[in-house]
Amino acid sequence: MSDRRSELVLATVIAALSALTLFVWIPADIDTGMIETFRRQTFIGDAFLPALSAAGMMLCALIQLVTVWRRAASDRPGPVLDGTTLAFFVGFAVIVAVSLATMFWLGAAVWDVLGDGERTYREMRGTAPWKYLGFAFGGTALVWGTISLIEGRVSAKRLLAAALFVTALIAIFDLPFDSILLPPNGDW
What we know:
The chain is mainly alpha-helical. The chain contains six helices and two strands, in the order αββααααα. Keywords: Membrane, Transmembrane, Transmembrane helix.
């Protein structure tokens, strides 16, 4: 684990690089804007996801910078890598693997069982409810599983919070745009 000074330097460098990316590189390199409208259809522009990623990195770096800046140097315990920490990381890897498998395969598996037999899942992946199944259940499992692992207990309130969060992601990224395929539907 690094000391306080190196964390301050790292957070500052990441914040500066993400700001450079967000305010200089993306506008100079990408011709389209964040959101494009063409012939009454609304699309995510080429700059949307890179700008969102750069803004997220900058926000996290600034939070880290403020947190480390406010913390006294003596408040920090030394790094520990023991069996509990290792079990946490293995548990997290299992949650991610199961959630991603659910996200990828659930829509196709349910279509195989309930589909009409004339069309394939690939043909139906852009229509409700098929385009939401994998993302909704896999995303909820990922968020809920991670919260449960961190808190050390399973809670129905956290399941509801995870489901609401994933519903908000669907509302932000899918509903306003006509041509979006939520993950993993673009892979089918």
